[in-house]
Task: structure prediction
Amino acid sequence: MKIKHLWHKTLMRTVMGAFAIILFYMLLFMRIMLYEGQTQHVNLVDAFYWVVTTLTTVGYGDIIVTSDLGKFFAVFIQLSGIPLVFGVFFTLMIIPWMENMIHSNIPTRAPKKLSDHIIICGYNRLIETLIEELKENDVPYILIEDEPELVRDMLKKNIHTILGDVYEEETLNSANIKEAQFLIANRSDEMNANIILTARNISTDLNIIAIVEDRSNKKYLKYAGATSVVSPKEMFGRFIGRKAADPFVNRLTGATEFFEGISIVELPIYPKSPLIGKTMKNAAIREKTGANVVGMWKGGSLTFFIRPDDVIKDNSVLLAIGYTEQLSHLKKLTQHMG
Result:
């Protein structure tokens, strides 16, 4: 990963700088020993020993300076040792080493045998529900996240997840991208563009689905190499435009297929729908239709965080995922055919 590489370069430069300072102090120490007439200590071993013990404020007292110049020099080294030892040694070496030990149990590579799978870059409620569908239908997948704590949470939920930067070639290769069927980019529009460019650089025939936040960026993600771009807001607009025209149409229209058989669609709630006034828990949509509601338009904004006590209103729009038959059943409930 580039970040890891930059960290290694920073660490190397810092360590080399610290050794350069120590060497400079050693040379000054030997000059002061000559000045004080303590020629027996004018050697690299004693110089290194005295400088290190003084920097770390240990000071065993077996080698001491006697002149005023030497004492000021010793005080200066002791003061400079605080940022040098604690700033460099602990911040750039000890703490990262401890973090690495803590994170060492987090997977960073997909199983070597994983193939014909779906790579998912970025987590939210929509993705969690999609993963539930994948599990139920034995479709292999791997989720990539860059936050260790979130990866741990996903693993506790038995969601196959690896840690890595989603836009890095090394991470995508670790997810077996060359053997994958699909890649879903589910981060910010800017990051999605980076993910797509990196993925397309590795595989020219991979199916890439991007979930766009701002539909004005849709064409740029297409230019970057996305096979298809899903825009919830655009889907919402299409449904609002048809709301008065198709309340009695039984066919499922406007659905966007993620992969074979499984689609995502937005379904507006019509005035006579039996769902109106019910909470998400009482509506029992999953139990009745088999479809999963992963998002809802409320007050003009789309949220993926749906609570059991959220009430379905006549101006609500449900974002659902499932098979065509399941979504068609849900569409009947959103109208007045329940």
